[in-house]
Design a protein that fits this description.
2 copies of one chain form a homodimer. By secondary structure, the first copy, chain A, is an alpha+beta fold. The first copy, chain A, contains 9 helices and 11 strands. Chain A is globular and about 55 Å long. Chains A and B meet through strand 4, strand 5, helix 4 and helix 9 of A and strand 4, strand 5, helix 4 and helix 9 of B. Chain A binds a DNA duplex (30 and 30 nucleotides) through helix 7.
Chain lengths: 253, 253
Amino acid sequence: MPSTSTVKQTEPCPAAFDVLTRGFDAHVRPRMTALLDKNTRHIRAGSDIVAEDEPTKPFYWVLEGWVALNKSLQDGHVQTVDIILPSDVILPTSGGGSVSAFDVQALTDVTLSSISAAELDSLEMADPPHMWSAIRPLSAAARARIGERMLRIGHGSAEMRVAYILTELYLRLDNQCGDNCPSFHLPLTQQQIGDFSGLSSVHVCRTLRRLSRQGIIETSDHLDIVINDADALAGIANVDIDTFKREMVTPVP
Amino acid sequence: MPSTSTVKQTEPCPAAFDVLTRGFDAHVRPRMTALLDKNTRHIRAGSDIVAEDEPTKPFYWVLEGWVALNKSLQDGHVQTVDIILPSDVILPTSGGGSVSAFDVQALTDVTLSSISAAELDSLEMADPPHMWSAIRPLSAAARARIGERMLRIGHGSAEMRVAYILTELYLRLDNQCGDNCPSFHLPLTQQQIGDFSGLSSVHVCRTLRRLSRQGIIETSDHLDIVINDADALAGIANVDIDTFKREMVTPVP
DNA sequence: CGGCCATTTGAACGCGCTCAAGCGCGGTGG
DNA sequence: CCACCGCGCTTGAGCGCGTTCAAATGGCCG
């Protein structure tokens, strides 16, 4: 998959572990890095990392690739509760602490690192407890984003829901890459966009075409999105870009 | 407001602080209790505890009363992202860590205790860090419940959404009180139930009447709910009661 | 070339929304 | 004490958005 110069790729950070362990004390950092390194796994696109209601580790850190947290109804309808991008964490456990509340699925080929409950407990004992400090802002940003999405799924039009999702993913990717490039690769089928926004794939298709007919976006290949008018898109999504950048994405300095 | 013997009340636990601080080391517990005691506040029903996008403390613990976490669109539509019951925590901050992602509103008269960022940081330094251990399961249960709600708002019928909300609140209250009484006081207007379930108040009304015509629930006073057939309600909500109790509510032993 | 999957487009239906009017209850003030 | 008012619940009518069903198109890979 050759990359054109104008399309964002989600490639591994050169020193991926450094991002999470930044800010850790020097004497904790090597131990942490070793732990992450030991538990690094590769998962192929489409396969499950964890199944809903099955035992799971409490903490995963995504190094590379996109991950969906899904829940589904008996009738087969799927809702994607969150999408995890590189350098974000997955906290899949439900209140019991040992089984997963979500179906954790790899949307692309994924590289991730996990920490077991025992390892996490042991890290908690470190003084001071850096894990919490590292996870807190990521977890808070995820909560806030899920709230934004729930608001729009509950009360927004189809156009607003799709525009919001594109805006959210665009700003989160933009935050990672640092450049200001309006194109990105969206490794989601229209069905998956529908699962994420609470729409049918048919209506996602109609909505995307309407947005592109308005000149706001372009769908060159069916997976590469060009955002021509980010302000208009954010307007439809009812998003304030600056506020969103400040509060919903976790800075990767 | 005299309480009948068959209607659950949400009254203060006699030794409320003990619940959260249970499991803390003896030498941390008095300090923690003093901190909570010092920062206890009373809020009247209907008033805001924290406004969206405004500075906030990072941690609140609800001792008494019901609290809604709301988000709203420019057009005035409100979505209640979560409802916090006594002995649950509020983590209102967004990714930036200092401002609130939600409008935190008292649904009833509320008693709560807060911890500032500085106090939280200082508690984090305690060895071992009990705060995280205390918050983790509460936070995980909240995430799981929000996922369940998002799934139903995205893909469920009105009947399923309302049945789910009644089931969730019923099981959470039941968990608190320990008894197995099918009646509870629901301090929500139909408008607020609509905000919570992503429905209009008109359709909430129709749905509640349909459920009561089927004999599944009864709405004696317009705020006291009797659940005649919890299994049928859970069936409509697509909820497995045992699984829900195990994973979505945090045991109050 | 054939098969499969995702996208696209059309047609029709139905759920939940909006608008609007009527009702019931509690609180307030003349 | 009763009249008034306001808020929340109830019910009806009609509509529109997003759904489902169905078929056609297009791209990729064997």
